[in-house]
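Deviation from plan, reported transparently: adenosine-5'-triphosphate complex.
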Amino acid sequence: MPEKNTMTENEKNPRIQKESTPESSRLKNGEKSTIKITVRNLDFFYGTVQALFDVSLDIPEHRVFALIGPSGCGKSTFLRTLNRMNDTIPGTRLEGTILLDDDDIYKVKDVSVIRTRVGMVFQKSNPFPKSIFENVAYGLRVNGINDKSLIAEQVEETLKKAYLWDEVKDKLNHNAYLLSGGQQQRLCIARALAVRPEVVLMDEPASALDPISTSKIEDLIGELKKDYTIVIVTHNMQQAARVSDFTAFFYEGVMVEVGATRKIFTKPDQKKTEDYITGRFG
Ligand SMILES: Nc1ncnc2c1ncn2[C@@H]1O[C@H](COP(=O)(O)OP(=O)(O)OP(=O)(O)O)[C@@H](O)[C@H]1O
Ligand SMILES: [Mg+2]
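Because the crystal trials were delayed, the predicted structure below was used instead.
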């Protein structure tokens, strides 16, 4: 009698394995979350120099996922692979698979579709040299909204979402550069949200800000995860512990450990993780 083939599709083809790792998909209350981004066997090269080695992890939907690790370990590189921002750097190469829901983002022909679905906020705020209003309206127009009153309505709604409305509602026509650094960063978050992304990538969004602005950004991140999936790079361990549900620790291009933030910061499995979070290196 022929042996029954009991392998699942995932076992047959591990490179597109969609089954989440128990660790990273288990939420604090024990319930399972949908996986928004699935990364499998990701290698990344700048020319001949490899910057990421065989990274596999799951990013759950409507949660905050933090990337930590010493300078140069590949956090920003990894973050940029999630919306194909690295495509803009000549000589780079990627192997492996990244799925956004069920879509292989490197097989999508129109990159702008991916960048709309996966928005990005950078370390240094970079508002356009336009009015506060126009910075947000830009994102709406990109998304095909042209009706004037609808734009005005949604600019207000988006600025409220970014916790900025009360501070700017009387000066919407002022140049964005006249805002403080912390306000400019929240304006950039508003601009990113206006495009209606599903995922927001943030690369050290608060590292240039004072403690009050930082705490505003952290509050905002906590609020945003209701509607978006957030992936954040931070050097600030307390911040990672405060804002994130899951944390991945990277070291020299390798994803050493991933899991619930509470576990990573209290009893990590790997000694390297422990050394890093206790400040013994990095
Ligand atoms: N455009 C680039 N061209 C060539 N090498 C690069 C480029 N950007 C980054 N690298 C290299 O890739 C590796 C990972 O860099 P990356 O910027 O991803 O690190 P990081 O963890 O974000 O560091 P930091 O915490 O300092 O921001 C480093 O060795 C870096 O020198
Ligand atoms: Mg970086």
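The mean pLDDT is 88. We consider this an acceptable substitute for the interim report.
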